[in-house]
Specification:
Blueprint: H1 2-6, E1 19-20, H2 23-29, E2 38-41, E3 45-51, E4 72-78, H3 86-102, E5 113-115, E6 122-126, H4 133-138, H5 141-149, H6 161-181
Parallel strand pairs: 1-5
Antiparallel strand pairs: 2-3, 3-4, 4-6, 5-6
Length: about 190
């Protein structure tokens, strides 16, 4: 899998259920959503990292890989969208969680949990300590800085041809799964 080849993925698909978190629990785990814990900031979200053990609701962490760091999770806090009514935002989040909870594929991140508090809806998933595929392919100075924030002491070596082929195979397999397994004929990608 992509996880074994280059450490890009953090896991292998979720189970049917997931943990429910309170906003207070996620706030405590991230030191009140401290900006120093942000690993990536997107247009619609900010991702905060925390040790797996910082969320007791998850239970004991999976074993760390040989010589690797203890597992961490990412809490993706969704930004409010003032153009959507609160009830609609909550319904859309619950629909997304229903889809994510049913995803089971080794090249997809597992849904570990969520908080549906309308003040700060959040999704909890394993942290991809290998960085994004974009960062690993391009290794720009910005990418190297993001990888350092994930714990890399130096820029990783460029991906080998074999690793790139493995990633293509894993991504193709995951896309095929997504387009054929979701109720209604596949996942719709927008934006």
């Amino acid at each position: 899998s992509m996880a074994g080849a280059v450490g890009v993925s953090g896991g292998g698909g979720g189970g049917g259920g997931f943990a429910r978190f309170s906003l207070d629990e996620l706030s405590a785990a991230t030191n009140n959503f401290d900006s120093r814990r942000i690993v990536v900031r997107g247009h619609r979200y900010a991702c905060f990292q925390t040790p797996w053990g910082g969320l007791p609701t998850l239970g004991p962490p999976p074993p760390a890989p040989a010589g690797g760091a203890a597992p961490r999770v990412v809490i993706r806090r969704l930004h409010s969208n003032p153009s959507l009514q609160r009830a609609l935002r909550t319904r859309l989040l619950q629909e997304e969680l229903k889809i994510l909870a049913g995803m089971r594929h080794p090249a997809l991140l597992a849904l570990l949990g969520a908080c549906v508090d309308p003040r700060a809806p959040c999704i909890v998933q394993p942290l991809c300590t290998g960085g994004s595929l974009d960062d690993r392919l391009l290794l720009t100075p910005e990418a190297t800085a993001r990888l350092a924030h994930l714990g890399w002491s130096a820029a990783p070596p460029p991906l080998t041809v074999a690793q790139r082929i493995r990633i293509l195979l894993d991504a193709s397999s995951a896309l095929l799964y997504l387009h054929s397994s979701v109720e209604g004929g596949g996942v719709q990608v927008t934006g």
